[in-house]
Request: fold
Amino acid sequence: MLYNMLKKLIERKYYIDKQSIIDLLNNFATFSQITIEQYSELMILVEDKYTVIEENTEEEVQENE
Reply:
């Protein structure tokens, strides 16, 4: 039940920043509120949802050439 709630919160990007949800997941895993398998799945989901993709500007591309 907790796993499903956490999954929904992550999918909806309920937390403002990535570190907040990581800290929460670490606490739940530490105190065995979620299994290691669930923790792993949720961390993968966090990485997917909270990773910021930065676009290269034209200036940066020209500097790298």
In short: The chain has a mean pLDDT of 89. Residues 2-50 form one domain. DSSP finds four helices and no strands in the chain.
